[in-house]
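Handout, section B. The chain below has 142 residues.
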Amino acid sequence: MPCGRDRRGGHGPGDLQLDGATLVQPDLFVLPLIGGRRPVSPSDIGRALLVVEVLSPSTARHDRVMKRARYQRYGVEYWIVDLDARLVERWTPGVPRPEILTGTLTWQAGETAVALRTDLDALFAEALGKREPRWIDRRALR
């Protein structure tokens, strides 16, 4: 999934190796492009720019405790999407508490990247089957 000129998105299941011994399968992740192209092999993949997990009752504790600590240790921005609460917890490296996002989520993968803006109310309405898909501000993708 394209995310802009200098990064590439992917969705699970897909392996993301944090180090020689740590392999994770996030629901969604954004990787930097390598020389303008997407990584083609696991050895091409560097540090993820963003990792996203969608909570489910069976994974909530693991996502909020184990995975959060792991991603923070590796300096990766980590979002936890809570469909029931209709919010996103944004965990940034080096910050001990999440930013709780409702309404609009804005993310930028660097100072020169175009910001991606997402209407969370529309996203959650669509995810819960209550609205047609219209949650991405397409102007941000140009």
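Note. The first strand starts at residue 7 and ends at 11. Compare this with the example in section A.
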